[in-house]
């Protein structure tokens, strides 16, 4: 249990820092390229995210599960064989994905923008897509190294390399786009194109970090192989058969959010224009798929880290038929999501105007703030998709994760245009929420049946979390009302930032105080929260 928590904290911390940096860099990037530049970035980056998932075909996460399974059985050599074979495969698929994306850039751009005279053209999108496609040559092979380390329950290499990758990428984006726009009078399209190309620069930096870890850890892995007593004599083709059986579902799990976004991108502009809302489509899409999205998914980083850290432990327990352990893992994972993501999403919703206004702009805040407030609760559904799909994979029910995600995606595809016609940008959010909700519900039902799992404890603690979250929101609402009499936070950016700081500080501390005094945190984390025991001793 402690291994999962340590891994969760490490990966969640790295993922949070990566997402936080991704959010912060959008502020100066927005100042350089504006709303249109951010929308253009989204039009190219979402297809790239899908190509990344397709080029890896779920292999890195599947390698993590494969290595964890056979390590539990005492066979370390077969994990090394799989790592080498998988690395060669990822090099090939990465190059193929690069060629396909590069050559299809014109078609992808033409499918996302209809009509002429808008701020973004299909040629603009095609150029940025070609620039970002180069990263596909490197990232698939790099990601399998992370999967191998995670399978050995070593989360440090993934955490550190992700952080370095993001830092280097952001520095390259900001420096490159600023120089292009301000010193060479380059176009916004050229600046966004270089920003997309920075994905390759960040990936190369991460490769260097992983290579350093590999040289450091390799002797310990070799020692385990030399001392092992159990060996499975599988042919290489048999290794790949088992790997692909695990890998297929990981593809859709990784594709879930990008696919929802891609549906928006193919339907948003035509539906907004057809419903008479074409003048604001780029602003609203930038909020839903980029600016607001980067903020909303920050709470989801906990779910991402938890899912990656939980999978090896859950697979190990399920392989050894240890029902007590894997039941505790499922219970704890769900409760960790609830105790952090629910209040975070609620806080984003109630402070949406302040967040968007202080980080980006107060212009059109009646549109942008409202969209982000409606989008915030979807973070919980995104987090639950990630974690419940990880649970199904650990319970060897990965095929069912495919069914649930496809069911949700089908609803999104069928109804998204109609929702946008009826409600504008809010309709796209509604479509995503319904689709994600269906996937989560189906996953939870399958987990209950597969693991003979009871949600009774999780439901009880979730009710308590909702009560504390409601009290937190009440405190924030009172503060906003009180400060509105002498702080012009709806008009001046400095005042908006101050109100945001007050709201986050007061609301967050109040919620944590309630969760601590009620022993909710202690029960969920089973006394393993850093600093909690120290606080008790002082008391």
UniProtKB/TrEMBL annotation:
<dbReference type="InterPro" id="IPR002797">
    <property type="entry name" value="Polysacc_synth"/>
</dbReference>
<keyword id="KW-1003">Cell membrane</keyword>
<dbReference type="Pfam" id="PF01943">
    <property type="entry name" value="Polysacc_synt"/>
</dbReference>
<feature type="transmembrane region" description="Helical">
    <location>
        <begin position="493"/>
        <end position="514"/>
    </location>
</feature>
<feature type="transmembrane region" description="Helical">
    <location>
        <begin position="88"/>
        <end position="105"/>
    </location>
</feature>
<keyword id="KW-1133">Transmembrane helix</keyword>
<feature type="transmembrane region" description="Helical">
    <location>
        <begin position="243"/>
        <end position="263"/>
    </location>
</feature>
<feature type="transmembrane region" description="Helical">
    <location>
        <begin position="423"/>
        <end position="442"/>
    </location>
</feature>
<feature type="transmembrane region" description="Helical">
    <location>
        <begin position="125"/>
        <end position="145"/>
    </location>
</feature>
<feature type="transmembrane region" description="Helical">
    <location>
        <begin position="20"/>
        <end position="42"/>
    </location>
</feature>
<keyword id="KW-0472">Membrane</keyword>
<feature type="transmembrane region" description="Helical">
    <location>
        <begin position="166"/>
        <end position="184"/>
    </location>
</feature>
<keyword id="KW-0812">Transmembrane</keyword>
<feature type="transmembrane region" description="Helical">
    <location>
        <begin position="295"/>
        <end position="317"/>
    </location>
</feature>
<feature type="transmembrane region" description="Helical">
    <location>
        <begin position="190"/>
        <end position="214"/>
    </location>
</feature>
<feature type="transmembrane region" description="Helical">
    <location>
        <begin position="399"/>
        <end position="417"/>
    </location>
</feature>
<dbReference type="InterPro" id="IPR024923">
    <property type="entry name" value="PG_synth_SpoVB"/>
</dbReference>
<protein>
    <submittedName>
        <fullName>Oligosaccharide flippase family protein</fullName>
    </submittedName>
</protein>
<feature type="transmembrane region" description="Helical">
    <location>
        <begin position="372"/>
        <end position="392"/>
    </location>
</feature>
<dbReference type="InterPro" id="IPR050833">
    <property type="entry name" value="Poly_Biosynth_Transport"/>
</dbReference>
<feature type="transmembrane region" description="Helical">
    <location>
        <begin position="48"/>
        <end position="67"/>
    </location>
</feature>
<feature type="transmembrane region" description="Helical">
    <location>
        <begin position="329"/>
        <end position="352"/>
    </location>
</feature>
<feature type="transmembrane region" description="Helical">
    <location>
        <begin position="463"/>
        <end position="487"/>
    </location>
</feature>
């Amino acid at each position: 249990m402690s291994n999962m928590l340590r891994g969760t904290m490490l990966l969640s911390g790295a993922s949070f820092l990566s997402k936080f940096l991704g959010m912060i860099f959008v502020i100066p990037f927005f100042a350089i390229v504006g709303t249109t530049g951010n929308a253009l970035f989204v039009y190219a980056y979402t297809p790239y995210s899908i190509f990344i998932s397709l080029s890896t075909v779920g292999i890195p996460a599947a390698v993590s599960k494969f290595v964890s399974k056979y390590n539990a059985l005492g066979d370390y050599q077969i994990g090394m064989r799989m790592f080498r074979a998988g690395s060669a495969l990822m090099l090939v698929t990465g190059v193929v994905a690069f060629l396909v994306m590069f050559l299809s850039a014109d078609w992808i751009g033409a499918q996302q923008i209809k009509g002429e005279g808008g701020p973004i053209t299909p040629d603009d999108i095609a150029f940025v897509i070609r620039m970002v496609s180069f990263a596909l040559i490197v990232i698939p092979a790099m990601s399998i190294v992370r999967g191998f380390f995670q399978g050995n329950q070593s989360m440090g290499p993934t955490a550190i390399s992700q952080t370095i990758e993001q830092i280097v990428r952001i520095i390259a984006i900001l420096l490159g786009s600023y120089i292009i726009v301000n010193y060479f009078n380059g176009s916004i399209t050229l600046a966004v194109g270089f920003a997309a190309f920075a994905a390759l620069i960040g990936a190369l930096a991460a490769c260097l970090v992983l290579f350093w870890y590999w040289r450091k850890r390799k002797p310990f892995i070799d020692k385990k192989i030399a001392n092992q007593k159990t060996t499975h004599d599988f042919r290489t083709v048999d290794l790949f058969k088992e790997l692909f059986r695990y890998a297929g579902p990981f593809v859709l799990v990784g594709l879930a959010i990008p696919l929802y976004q891609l549906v928006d991108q193919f339907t948003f502009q035509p539906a907004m224009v057809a419903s008479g809302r074409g003048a604001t489509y780029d602003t609203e899409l930038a909020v839903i798929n980029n600016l607001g999205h980067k903020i909303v998914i920050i709470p989801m980083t906990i779910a991402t880290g938890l899912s990656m850290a939980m999978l090896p432990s859950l697979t190990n327990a399920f392989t050894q038929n240890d029902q007590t352990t894997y039941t505790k893992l499922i219970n704890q994972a769900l409760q960790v999501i609830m105790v952090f993501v629910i209040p975070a999403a609620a806080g984003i919703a109630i402070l949406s105007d302040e967040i968007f206004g202080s980080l980006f702009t107060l212009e059109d805040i009646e549109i942008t703030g409202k969209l982000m407030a409606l989008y915030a609760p979807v973070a919980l559904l995104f987090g639950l998709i990630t974690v419940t799909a990880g649970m199904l994979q650990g319970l060897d029910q990965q095929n069912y994760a495919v069914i649930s995600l496809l069911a949700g995606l089908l609803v999104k595809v069928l109804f998204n245009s109609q929702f946008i016609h009826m409600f504008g940008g809010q309709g796209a959010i509604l479509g995503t929420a319904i689709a994600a909700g269906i996937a989560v519900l189906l996953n939870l039902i399958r987990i209950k049946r597969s693991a003979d799992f009871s949600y009774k404890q999780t439901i009880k603690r979730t009710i308590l979390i909702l009560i504390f979250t409601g009290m937190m929101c009440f405190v924030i609402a009172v503060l906003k009302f009180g400060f509105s009499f002498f702080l012009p936070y709806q008009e001046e950016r400095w005042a908006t930032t101050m109100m945001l700081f007050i709201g986050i500080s007061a609301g967050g501390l109040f919620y944590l105080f309630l969760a601590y005094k009620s022993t909710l945190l202690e029960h969920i984390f089973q006394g393993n929260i850093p600093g909690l025991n120290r606080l008790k001793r002082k008391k």
